[in-house]
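COMPLEX REQUEST
Ligand: NDP
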Amino acid sequence: MAPIVIDGNVVAAALREEIRVDVARFQTQYGYPAGLAVILVGEYPASVTYVRNKSRYSQELGMHSEVHQLPASTSEDEVLQLIDRLNRDARIHGFFVQMPVPAQIRPLHLQSAIDPAKDVDGLNPVNVGRLVLNEPCLTACTPLGVIELLKRYDLPVAGKHAVVLGRSNIVGKPMANLLLHANATVTICHSQTRNLAEITRQAEILVVAIGKTEMVTGEMVQAGTVVIDVGMNRIEDSSKKSGFRLTGDVKYDEVAPLAQAITPVPGGVGPMTIAMLLSNTIRAAWDSKKTG
Ligand code: NDP
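STATUS: Structure written out below.
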C-alpha cells in the first residue's frame, strides 16, 4: 500500500492560520502585538535565510518583529548585554539567538541568559529540565513540530516503540522526551550505537536526525513504520538556482514503499520548525499575562 506522505507545508500553513487568529486576539485584548526578536551574529548564509524567513512569517501573522544583526567579531559580553535588554523589553515576548554563533561565543552561556519565559527555542537549561520533568515549558521547535505532525495525521504514539536516531540537544534529546511523555517506549541511538539496523528495524516510529545524507536505507526499516526524516543536508547542485538541493537522512525511494507514513525532504519537518517558533511566541505572550 502507498504510504501516507506527511505534508509539512499543509500542516504548517493550517497552524499559521490558527496562530494568526490568536495573535489578533492578543492584540485586541492588550492593544499591542505579540513580539518576537532574533539575534543573528555574523553572516553565515543559511542563518541569514532562516532569520529572514522567521521574521517575515512573524510579521505576516501580525507580530512585532525585530532582527538584531551583529558583526561576526561581536564578543560574548556584548551579546549578553543585548540578551539582558531583550529580557527586560515588554514588547518582546520571545527571542532566540540563531545558531551557529562564531567561535568566541559559547552557545550555552547565551541560552542560559535568556529569560526562560521568553526562550522560544526551548534551549535554556530551565526549560530543558522542565521538559525532562514533563512540566509545562517552552520546548525546542523541531521536535515539537514532529509531535504536531503525528497528531494532525492521527498517527498514535502511545505504546509504540519509537526509535530516535541522534541525540543532539536541539533535536534528538527533546524528541525522545516528548515521545516518552506521549507514552512511547523510546530508544535513542547515536554514532556509538552498535548494530544500528537491528534496532531501527524494531521501530514502529523512527525519527531520524543525524545529518547524514540518505543514511537510513530500506534494509533498516520494517514494513509499516512511521518514518520522520528531520535531516536537512545541502548537496551542491549547479542545476538549481540556489546552487544546492536539500536531501534528508533517509533514502526516501527505498524506505517510502515500506512505510505506513513518511515525511519528505523538503516539505516534511522543515516547514514545521518555523511554525512552532511562532506558536511558542504567541504562547509566551499569553503566559506573560498570566505571570505578570
Ligand atoms: P547534530 O550534528 O548536532 O547531531 C547529530 C546526531 O546524530 C548526533 O547525536 C550523532 O551522534 C548522531 N549520528 C551522527 N552520525 C551517526 C551515525 N552514523 N549513526 C548514528 N547516529 C549518528 O545534528 P542536529 O541534531 O542538529 O541535526 C540533525 C539533522 O537534522 C541535520 O541534517 C540538520 O540539518 C537537521 N535539522 C533540521 C531541522 C529542521 O527544521 N528540519 C532543524 C534542526 C536540524 P553522537 O552524539 O554520538 O555524535
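REMARKS: The chain has two domains: 33-114, 141-271. The radius of gyration is 19 Å.
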